[in-house]
Amino acid sequence: MDRLSLNQRTTERWTVAEAVDGCVRAGLQWIGLWREPVQACGVAEAARLVAEAGLRVSSLCRGGFLTASAAGARAAALDDNRRAIDEAGTLGADCLVLVVGGLPAGSRDLTGARARVADGVAALVPYAEAAGVRLALEPMHPLYCADRGVLSTLDQALEMAAPFAPSSVGVVVDTFHVWWDPVVEAAIARAAGRIASFQVCDWITPFPADALLSRGMMGDGHIDFRHLRRLVEAAGYDGPIEVEIFNADVWAADPDEVVALMRKRYEEHVLD
Amino acid sequence: MDRLSLNQRTTERWTVAEAVDGCVRAGLQWIGLWREPVQACGVAEAARLVAEAGLRVSSLCRGGFLTASAAGARAAALDDNRRAIDEAGTLGADCLVLVVGGLPAGSRDLTGARARVADGVAALVPYAEAAGVRLALEPMHPLYCADRGVLSTLDQALEMAAPFAPSSVGVVVDTFHVWWDPVVEAAIARAAGRIASFQVCDWITPFPADALLSRGMMGDGHIDFRHLRRLVEAAGYDGPIEVEIFNADVWAADPDEVVALMRKRYEEHVLD
To answer: Per-residue pLDDT tens for A85-109?
Structure first.
């Protein structure tokens, strides 16, 4: 239970201060933060709240969106990522999650978009290293390839991370994004030393009407969490296990009850 | 244009007789059929209509659904597949498409489900060979892994097909299902000799509310069709190019207009 982390989007209506309090009430030691609520709180104030509560920040979501081809949009994206790196540094986050972005409007050049992501990561690494922040490439479910993340498999993320030190560029293993992958076992083994974040939530059916809110509480869907947890542990990962759920029903529920249910399901479905 | 095939689900309201007439009116030479409307027409009658119209059957959809673990359900699935093979033989279809099935209700054992698919295919091959029918394993978009098809990548389909002669077990390359794959170029090259069917339709955004009706007309979405067509041709495939679109708006339109638009978009987006 000392590894369980609440990603604050799971309790979407909570501010940073409320989420910190909620974690303390639930006896958690970790929290995953998002930039927008952190900025609403103030980055320094968020860092103070987290530290005074005795929590640690498992991840900051999110940088990335590096697929733009126009020079101005590209420069703006890199600037925004540098700000995200600064914020992650201030918060002492274990990593800054990068959601790499989808195809630019009107483009069908997937290879080109992927190449621009690789270039963008390379451009950010020196800044991240100077700030002591680890970047975490998040392969996303192929469902989101067109409009959110052209990084579609763990193998692809590892290949993109390979030119850099594992302490500088890691990968996110999110069960929702990788569970279907026929070669996930080998990919997680290859990820040894690169796993910067392990996130859990379930794949539910029937598929919800809003594709962005299709994540379920552990146990409500089809994913074998123990199997994937054992694989990341066999690859040497012993860090926080973060629960990140985008789901209209979860968001409508009382956040304290969501956290209680998350604890229960984590024990039942993720731990041995 | 002599390679273009209308998969009859694209004009969902048409019976076999109407779809055959529609293909003739549009100057097409190929049609892809589905078992339910073929059975409604009568298999022998459907074969007669197609032959008298001078059409050829690019594929019969579909067999498969081989993931059940209960002995009775498994035997029933194999029986149904043998009937589908008989029907494909009567129709002279280029192949019988296999949609392999999702996880059984309540199961989270993806590895086990995939193993049962491999066993089921092995059990069907002698029957298919005797009937002169080529089985075509269809890797499906990972979106459908839980509830429709645990075969998620072209590489995985090729591995499953490998024990059998390419003339007995091929694979389907459906742009909708494979376009996102970071290793699709290498996988299609490896598929040389195994490509039993090439299907085209687009990936559209925002993702429609019904995940099963999320396919779009070529040109309405994000897929680079020419790139994928050139890859399958470089791998030696010169057979029909089938348009299979499940989409509420397409189904609501006049079928003749859908076929006309399909021809136009095929010229604009698939051909050179």
So the answer is: 999 999 999 999 999 999 999 999 9
Taking the C-alpha atoms of residue B194 and residue B136, their distance in angstroms, rounded to an integer, is 9
Residues A189-214 pLDDT 10s = 999 999 999 999 999 999 888 888 99
Amino acid residing at B40 = A
Dihedral over Cα of B213, B217, B223, B226: its sign = positive
- Give the pair of three-digit tokens for residue A14: 């909570």
CB-nearest partner of B222 from A108, A142, A143? A108
pTM for the structure as a whole: 0.97
Going from N- to C-terminal start, the domains of chain A cover 4-269
Q: What percent of chain B has pLDDT over 70?
A: 100
Q: Mutate which of A100, A108, A147, A230 to test chain B, going by most B C-beta atoms within 10 A?
A: A108
Closest CA to B153 of B143, B139, B173, B137: B139
Q: Are A171 and A139 in contact (CB under 8 A)?
A: yes
- CA B72 to chain A, closest CA, distance in angstroms equals 23
User: For residue A203, what is the nearest residue in chain B, using CA coordinates?
Assistant: B146
Percentage helix, strand, coil for chain B under 3-state DSSP, each rounded to 5: 50, 15, 35
For chain A, list residues whose CB is within 8 angstroms of any CB belonging to chain B.
Answer: 103, 107-110, 114, 141-143, 145-147, 152-153, 155-156, 179-183, 203, 205-207, 209-211, 221-224
Phi, psi of A140, rounded to the nearest 5 degrees: -110, 155
Q: Rounded to an integer, what is the distance from CA A147 to the centroid of its chain?
A: 17
Top-level CATH class of A4-269? alpha beta
Distance from CA of A200 to the nearest CA of B (A): 15
Under an 8 A CB cutoff, do A224 and B180 touch?
Answer: no
**How many angstroms separate the CA of residue B205 from the nearest CA in chain A?**
7
Which of B107, B148, B180 should be substituted to probe chain A, the one whose Cβ sees the most A Cβ atoms within 10 Å?
Answer: B180
- Identify the bridge partners of residue A32 per DSSP, sorted by sequence position: A7, A59
